[in-house]
Every structure is written in C-alpha cells, then in structure tokens.
Design goal:
single chain, globular, 21% strand, ten-stranded mixed beta sheet
Length: 290
C-alpha cells in the first residue's frame, strides 16, 4: 500500500501515538521508514544573543536526534528498513522538500491541534505540510495516553466523509485500503451543509438536490467497500459539516477519519475548509489526501 513512509520528529513528548501508527502501517506494507528531524532555524525567541541562540538550537537538535534514534531502534526491532536524516530549515519546507526528493508515499506526524482564538491563526507545521504536499498526510494528536497496540485492533472503525469531489474519492481509497488491511468497519458520511440554505427563500428543490447528491456520493464509496467485503454503513446528515463529522466520528468510536483537500499551496488559503476545521479539533487521527 505504501512503499516509503516519513515520520518527521522534533523530539516532542506525546508523539507515541503517531509513531506507533506509522510503524505499524510500515510493518503491514513492508515499507521503508524515513525518520526526519528538521532543526528549526526560526524557532529561537527574538532578541537572544548569539551564544544563547546557539545553545537553544543545540539542545533542540540533540532532542530531535535522540528521538530519531529511538524511532529507528523501534523500526529495527520490527525488521523494517530505515533511513534517518537531520536537516536544517523551517520544518514544513524541509519536510516538503524531503517528500519531493525521496518519493515518499505517506507522512505520519503529530499535531497539537488548536482551540479558542488559535483556530484562526496560522502556524501549525502539520497544517502547512497538509496543504503544501501532494501526498497523503496522517495527522495524529499529541497525547499522554498510551499508544495503541500493534496489529488488527489498531483500526476497528474508519470514517470516510465525502462531498462527492475527486479529492474525497482519492482520500476514500486510502481509507478503504487501511480498512481492508486491518479488517475495519467502514462508515461513509455526507453532511448537507445547512448554512447553504439557512435563508427562507431557498427552494426546497435545492435542499432535495443536495440530499440526493449526498446519497449518491456515499453510495459510490459504500459500493466500493462492499466490493472489498468490508462491513459498511452510510449516512446523510444535516448541519454544520465539521461539527457533524466530529460528532459522528466520536459516536462510532472512529480510529481514523480520511478526508480530501482541494489542491495544495499556502495553508492560509484553506483555513476555512471543513478538512482544516476537523484537523484542528479532532482527537482522532485524520488522514488527508489531495
């Protein structure tokens, strides 16, 4: 399914979940694991003297190197082929360049998520990677909870939202592939966005067309699930899309949500998208695909 999987690391605590998922996907795919630590040249606070800046940078580099070594040791224990690299630069640019130069098929990385006023602010490395690369990215929330155990139980329920777009169809293929590999149940969902017909003068025929379009979209993916002999349920919901999707995924105890993005470019062009909103708020892993 994947030949080359990239795990970016900066040594942050709480990334065990992301690492465990990346290594298990590599195990099931017999993929090469690429472990990348980017020494962030722009992370030091402004106004520091050169000696203090160099000290902070050295500490960050050591933390990242140590984390990368630990990941490599775990991959070695699983019999996986590994590549370990340290680069210098802004992390999202380093990751994007590494992806382009090394034929990476999937990036798995941790994310802190956002809340409150942070929702409207740009700055997440994960968001920048999601919107600036053309390959799938799995974003896994940093957590103090134990990482899931390796094996089939890692993915029991995969939620595949769709809006009928080509990007959603491509993301669905990744969701179905993971579900098939792990024997997971598939849940396909479409949300009729009520904010598009909140005015009284919107004809009911428009509402009906939106609902019919949703039913067609979910049935297309549900049919693909049945062809793979995967248990599947499908639903058409109404409401604010990101709110409904998060509630739905939580209700089925989802282990993964796969979503399409529209193209790639600078992240601030996409902050209003349903995918971006879900990515920032979700406690469960989100796999995005262009």
């Amino acid at each position: 399914m994947y030949d080359d999987i990239l795990i970016p690391t900066d040594g942050s605590t709480g990334a065990e979940n992301a690492i465990a998922r990346a290594l298990d996907l590599a195990r099931t795919s017999e993929a090469t694991v690429h472990i990348l630590h980017a020494v962030d040249t722009g992370a030091e606070p402004a106004g520091l003297e050169a000696a203090a800046r160099e000290k902070l940078r050295g500490q960050a580099e050591k933390r990242g190197r140590d984390a990368a070594v630990r990941i490599q040791e775990r991959a070695d224990d699983l019999g996986l082929e590994t590549v370990r690299v340290v680069e210098t630069g802004r992390p999202h640019r380093v990751i994007r360049h590494y992806v382009d130069e090394n034929g990476i098929d999937l990036v798995v990385m941790g994310t802190h998520g956002r809340a409150g006023a942070e929702r409207s602010r740009l700055g997440s490395t994960t968001e920048r990677v999601v919107t600036s690369t053309s390959i799938p990215v799995m974003a896994v929330r940093f957590s103090a909870e134990p990482a899931p155990e390796s094996g089939y139980a890692m993915y029991d329920h995969v939620v595949i939202p769709t809006d009928g777009s080509d990007a959603a169809e491509r993301a669905a293929e990744h969701g179905l592939g993971i579900a098939e590999r792990y024997g997971a149940d598939v849940h396909v969902v479409y949300v009729v966005d009520t904010t598009t017909y909140e005015f009284d003068d919107v004809p009911q025929s428009i509402v009906g067309m939106l609902k019919q379009g949703g039913e067609n979209a979910v049935e297309s993916i549900a049919a693909a699930s049945r062809e793979r002999n995967l248990p599947v349920t499908s639903n058409v919901l109404r409401g604010v899309p990101h709110e409904e999707l998060l509630d739905y995924a939580d209700g089925v105890d989802a282990d993964l949500v796969t979503m399409g993005t529209r193209g790639h470019g600078e992240a601030d062009r996409y902050l209003g998208s349903t995918t971006a909103r879900v990515l920032r708020r979700s406690e469960m892993p989100i796999l995005t695909s262009n």
